[in-house]
Amino acid sequence: MSDSSPSRPLVTFDGVSKRYGNVTAVHTMNLEIYEGEFLAIMGPSGCGKTTSLRMLAGLEEPSDGEIRLDGQRINEISSVERDTPMVWQSLALFPFLNVQKNVEFGLKMRQVQAEERRQRACKWLERMEILDLAERDISQLSGGQKQRVALARSLVTEPRILLLDEPLSALDANLVVRMQGVLSRLQKELGITFVYVTHSQSEAFAMSDRVVIMSQGRIEQLGSPREIYRSPASRFVADFVGANNILSGTVSQAGEDLEVKTTLGAFRCRTRTGDAFDVGDALDMVISADLVQISLEDPNTQNSLRCRFISEEFVGSIVTLFAELEDGSDFKVQARQRDLANMSLGEESSFFASWSTTDAHLIGAKE
Amino acid sequence: MSQDNSKSLLLRGYVVLVFIFVFTPIVTSFIFSVNSDRFPTIPLGHFTTHWYETIFADPDVWDAFRVSGIVSITVAILATFIGFCTAYTDYRYNFTGKALYLSLALLPPTIPLVIMGLAMLALLARINMSGEIYSIIVSHVVLCSPFAMAVIRMRLAQINPDLESAAWNLGASNWRAMREVIIPFCRPAIASAFCLTAAVSFDEFAVAWFVSGLNKTVPVIILEILQGNTDPQINAIGSIVFITSMTLVVLAQLILMRKTINQTATGI
Q: How far apart, in whole angstroms, are the C-alpha atoms of residue B263 and residue B187?
């Protein structure tokens, strides 16, 4: 049933802007959302991600541009007439209705007969594995159960697109992982489009086919989780996503193997196809913390730095080391716990971080 | 620990004193309403329902109860409706002059009742509307709406603003969302406002006295009886009025409290 290959756009944002007074929340946004894909919109708070979603739901009207659903302009169509149900951050379940009545709500508004309403609601309750809670009050449910009710309520009208506004932000860590699995599976089984707004990288990367990174009302990058993780398009993305080290410098030797001069010395980097830099160009070198090797002795390669150990963050098998470079800036290294076990790093001890010429990602600095 | 104990004991004593101060006159009045002596003296005579019988033998008193009943129920309906509309406007919309709108809406109870009564009489007499039952109703609606608004506004302040949007998102029109979401959510406050405004109207004397003409309400007839004679009939009718309004007020409070406790657990 699912056709995950990007076919035709279900939703198009065509130069959409949203202004509140003189504040621009969303800046001429162009975005195509495909039928059957799981798209995450991610960014820090105030980046315009929720506003974009609300415009799609018809709860805000764009100040400029056009939003198309299935090729049809929907700017003027009210939320009531669009079938773009949303799962809210606050869940927004109706506290005075029981589970069953909450799920039936959308059908009742569409004048579906009582008996059919009941059947269709039950089908979704069963699918969300909460049929036994049908008669409960909302106040008697746990966080995860409420989540499932909210999903059932939104999906009961069998929409082609489901909007989710940070629905997992109120859950504890274990439950978040479980619900990610539920959502991911659900999306694949239903084959409908999910648009998922979040500020959490792990949620976005775990579930989505494509991720949009937004900042200050603009799209910074759009791509698969892997692309965004390994090839951030801008310094903002490199800072926001993952654990990246960024060294700024200028090109001192052009060619396939560039030499980049920074305040910490010169480093050699292999350019990727499509990148072209001339001598004197300013650029940022992004070195992902998980691609860094560490050693106690100087490895005597050009791409190495002496680091002073500051602290470590231990989260199971992966350890993040926080260190300081000679010029006082921070440097992060991620390594497997068992590789570090015999290095005995302590306060004030220093180590060398090195990376291969192919592992640095280059971003041309914007003028 | 012992200091805490003595402190709480002191506080409790103080509360008891306050209650005694408030309720003594009422209890006294009730006791003498079932006492056989014509004048309130101690020692008491024997128990009697004579004074209640006398009161209810008086057709004027029946009339007054009828008028008061019609007035307070009508007022409760109208004032609760207006109060709800005002509170919802305040919750939903932002507009210039909102502060002014709110202060105007909440103004009536701050005006001394005598002034209010006089003003109402002056106005209603000028437009030939004084001395009728509806004159009392109109005046009491003005007086009571702010109470209804305050109670309902408190409830609306607790609503998750996403609820209404969620209803639209699920296909409910503005009116439908109002009917299916806002009103059910406010139902306890609406019931509470209804009881409260009914009590305020049932109790109110000054304004009713000015505008009622021949349609006397219960408080007005009490004054009349008091002026004529001073037997325990007054205590009897006073006790009835007290019990009626107290029941309404307590009911209002209970409805509100029960629901609030229920739904704070529901959380945000």
A: 12
Domain ranges of chain B: 52-266
Model confidence over B87-138: pLDDT tens digits? 999 999 988 889 999 999 999 989 999 999 999 999 999 998 878 888 999 9
Flag if A139 and B176 touch (Cβ within 8 Å): no
Nearest chain B CA: its distance from A156 CA (Å): 10
CATH of domain A9-235: 3.40.50.300
Taking CB atoms and an 8 Å cutoff, what residues of chain A touch B162? Answer: 88-90, 92
Taking alpha carbons only, the member of A292, A328, A57 closest to residue B170 is: A57
* Residues A281 and A367: beta-carbon distance below 8 Å: no
Kindly identify which residue of chain B lies nearest to residue A146, measuring between CA atoms. Answer: B266
Locate CATH 2.40.50.100 in chain A.
Answer: 243-364
How many angstroms separate the CA atoms of A48 and A13, rounded?
14
Tell me: cis bond preceding B43? Omega within 30 of 0 counts. yes
> In A, which residues are within 8 Å of B267 by CB distance?
139
ipTM, two decimals: 0.82
Indicate yes or no: CB of A109 within 8 angstroms of CB of B171.
Answer: yes
Q: Name the CATH code of domain A243-364 (choices 3.10.560.10, 3.30.460.10, 3.40.228.10, 2.40.50.100).
A: 2.40.50.100
CATH 3.40.50.300 residue spans of chain A: 9-235
For residue B33, give the nearest of B242, B191, B256 by alpha carbon: B242
Question: Quick one: CATH architecture of B52-266?
Answer: Orthogonal Bundle (1.10)
> pLDDT tens-digit profile of A136-162?
999 889 888 999 999 999 999 999 999
